[in-house]
Amino acid sequence: MTRHTWCCLYAWLLSLAVNASTQEWKYFEAPLQTGRHYFQALPIAYDKVIVMGGFINSSGPQNGIPTKTCEIIDLAQHRVYPAQPMNEGRAEFVALLTTDSNVIAISGVTGSITVAGGSGILTPTVELYDRTTNQWRIIGNLLFPRRQHTAIWLDDHRILVVGGRAEDLTTLSSAEIFDIRIGTSQPAPPYPYAMTDLVSARTSSGRIIVWGGRNGGPNSFRTNEVFEFTGVGWSVIQLLPEQYRAGTVLKLWDGRLLTTGGSYFESPTFNFVRSVYVENTPDIFSRLSDSLRFGRSSLGLAQWHSDSILVVGGFIGGLRTTVVTRTTEWIDLRNQRVSAGPTMIETRAHFQVVSLTNSKAYRAVLAISGLDTNNRNTPTIEVLMDGCISQPLAITGPTTLCDGDTVTLSASDGFAHYRWSTGQTSPRISVTKPGTYTLTATDSAGCSTSDSITIALLPSVRIRLLSASPRSAPLATLHCDTIEVTNPSSDTLWLDDIVLARNVEWSLPQHQRPLRLLPGQPHHLIVCWYATAHGSYRDTLCIVTPCGSACLPLLLETRSTQWRAISRCGVTVETPIEVADQGQSLLLQSSATVRVRDCLGRILLECPSDGQTASIPTASLLPGLYILDRDNSPALLLVR
Predict the structure, then answer these.
(1) DSSP 355-388
(2) Which residues of 304-336 are buried (b: 16+ CB within 10 A; e: fewer)?
(3) What is the CATH number of the domain that holds 492?
(4) What is the distance between the alpha carbons of residues 199 and 206, in angstroms, rounded to a whole number?
């Protein structure tokens, strides 16, 4: 066997390995409420698709009643639910995504069509769907209502609309530019031909191109010219080797274009396109060396891997009547080979194919509704899944806690099973320690997703009385206590909010602020006391931290100064001495009147009591030693 033969065999086997599919189409858990065809479907989130309008109650490919109903396919929640309907029913229209994933619906047929290919009333309106409010609103009108037209963004607010059919079914060459910001449309240079079923796209270099289409009905004129819209006119940038209409185009992940399918002619038999064209050089299509196994029209395209494209369903040709197929094919761009893909459960044409992806978690291709073999609108949805899609999971709860606190962590509802990194299996748990907590949740379909939350320990302090003055201290004497403050956290703390509740007898020397507390190291704080009256004095020292206030109660009682003397009979006598500065009042505890006498026993002052205390006005006394007669308990008074 020659080297060339081995290489070809290897390429063929590799192609089979890439495309040999273990993938299987499955019905989505819920169908649409209304089957439809010639509708639009676009992704509005990584897990949601909006389905809009189309023909319903159909008996053939080109008749039915245009509906205004819309539905949301929610992959994460495994359900389909109604969206706000459009203001007008429409089919054979164009829908585009805005840069913020809202939707623009452009013109289309709004009147019922009872005869296949017949005329119907058209609408010129352009509607905007706001996904955040689930509301449709009409934002303006086209200059010419049309159906079977093409439309493409020129920038983030201007849409180029080209060709299509008028209400009397005549084909249009007219073009216009609709501005979504102001809701008005301006004429654009007409397309070189009156065409319906055109295709438009933006190339990898950003050029706007339009091609394909046909001039009228079956076997009518079609061209192989690919035109670029220059802003002031149209110019040919390529001649394809074939003339056909209504191809399907796909924007690849790398920005290039791929197109396949369409119709060469329709009578006496339907002859559909098998060729595959890829933008291999900027703006220029090259035909793939291999072709589709079946010529197709009204097909769907989806990118599966970087070099793997899935061709889905549609009509297959070669017969006098169109045949709806459920076959699919893989296009291998790397080896330029085409092979059979996984077969759908149902036949589908005039349907929609939408791809959804969420990073590396999953990849899903949806085949949505359409016509089946019996020209009935099937409401079913089929999904080809790589990976697993689950509803969003979020853990809510505080991200900080203080030493000794308990916080609650709660998970999103709607899952069948929960497992936390702690081993607990409930949707809500209570935790008392800092760290990272991880949750894995599994839904009813068996798809799992994870989320985590990190809880940090807020810094706090511990305080204690390290060394203190005696419980009682002499009156009018300064005493200081030493407070030990410790930072148990791993971060250095700077604390400036240090307060005394009363801040009268107790005081905090201000040079100690702010406190700089190193991790794990004790710091000494001095608190001082001074009082000029008898009694018990209480205060509270509080240090404010991110975890609240750490407080320490303070207490000290005053006592009188003791004077020791020797009596005439030689007995030692200890007599309390009260000390006061001249001009200051001295507050004494006494339940009765206090008398101040001189050394000869003469009464100098009589100071009545309020039942608890008596105030001695020392301003009338000269410095010296006096006798206090208080509650029948004599004492000395030193006035300085």
Answers:
(1) EEE-TTSEEEEEEE--B-TTS-B---EEEEEEE-
(2) bbeebbbbbbbbbbeeeebebbbbbbbbbbebb
(3) 2.60.40.10
(4) 16
Same domain, 549 and 568: no
Query: In 3D, which of 605, 610, 567 has the Cα closest to residue 588?
Result: 610
Q: Say how many C-beta atoms besides its own lie within 10 A of residue 174's C-beta.
A: 20
Residue 577 pLDDT:
61
103 in a structural domain: no
Spans of the chain, pLDDT less than 50: 1-21, 469, 571-574
Domain that holds residue 581: 561-639
User: Residue 593 maps to which CATH number?
Assistant: 2.60.40
Q: Kindly report whether the peptide bond that precedes residue 546 is cis, defined as omega within 30 degrees of 0.
A: no
The answer as to whether 413 is a domain residue is yes
Q: Determine how many CB atoms are found less than 10 A away from the CB of residue 53.
A: 29
Task: Find residue 304's DSSP bridge partners.
Answer: none
pLDDT digits 0-9 by tens, 584-629: 777 777 888 888 888 778 889 898 988 777 888 888 888 888 888 8
Nearest CA among 589, 591, 586, 592 for reference residue 621: 586
| Number of domain units in the chain | 3
482 and 445 housed in the same domain: no
Rounded to whole angstroms, how far apart are CA atoms 349 and 52? Answer: 16
Q: Cα(146)–Cα(171) distance, rounded to whole angstroms? A: 9
Give the per-residue pLDDT at 560.
Answer: 57
pLDDT confidence of residue 1:
43
Q: Which two tokens stand for residue 551?
A: 């407080």
